[in-house]
From TrEMBL:
Domain Actinobacteria/chloroflexi VLRF1 release factor, chain residue ranges per copy: 72-197
Protein name: Actinobacteria/chloroflexi VLRF1 release factor domain-containing protein
One Pfam family recorded for the sequence: acVLRF1
Superkingdom assignment: Bacteria
Length: 201
């Protein structure tokens, strides 16, 4: 199975390309998703952003029209080297913050120096996560639904902050490099896109 993010404007073309590759495709709506099953046995399931349920007609155009970001949502990206957090209103970024922190790479040294190095690394990472949690708590104060990405353990560490208990993370999980501004902007596009899971026969 592969999973792809497809913006609303490209959904109809994506479905047409699927049909061209796999033959006649029967569309249906089940469990809040648009399903397609092709003559060759390949299939896809297309879902709306941030866990929204689709209950419209079994047509690519109607599904594409329903692919819209919710009124209020957020993005949270965390890696050891930095973080990015944004609050959105539909497709518009209302507030955001990106931050970089220096966390040392691994060392090849052995013995006590390696242990000291590991402790320093852990302390630097913890400080980075605390900074990310502070900004996330402020920016996502009234946002429940987010798309997250980066390092799963790092994101979980940030979301362990009691000020963020109201946050619900939705699929897809975004595999991102160290979060810079451009990475955050792409994450916003991906978060507001349809998520299509494809099983090729």
């Amino acid at each position: 199975m592969t999973s792809v993010q497809v913006p609303a404007a490209r959904v109809e073309r994506w479905v047409a390309n699927f049909v061209a590759r796999h033959g006649g495709t029967a569309l249906s709506v089940e469990d809040g998703a648009l399903l397609g099953v092709a003559d060759d046995g390949s299939r896809f399931a297309a879902r709306l952003p941030l866990g929204a349920s689709y209950d419209g007609p079994a047509e690519a155009a109607a599904f594409a029209a329903a692919v819209q970001a919710p009124e209020r949502w957020g993005v949270l990206l965390v890696r050891k080297g930095g973080f990015a957090v944004a609050r959105l209103h539909g497709g518009e970024m209302v507030e955001s913050k990106t931050g970089q922190r220096h966390v040392q790479g691994r060392t090849k040294a052995g013995g006590q120096s390696q242990q000291r190095f590991a402790r320093r690394r852990d302390n630097q990472a913890r400080q980075a996560y605390e900074a990310a949690a502070d900004h996330a708590a402020r920016i996502l104060a009234d946002v429940g639904d987010v798309v997250a990405g980066g390092d799963r353990a790092a994101v979980e560490e940030v979301l362990d902050d009691p000020r963020l208990v109201h946050v619900r993370v939705h699929q897809p999980w975004l595999a991102v490099p160290d979060p810079r501004r451009g990475v955050l902007e792409q994450a916003v596009v991906d978060g507001a896109s349809a998520r299509i899971e494809v099983h090729n026969a």
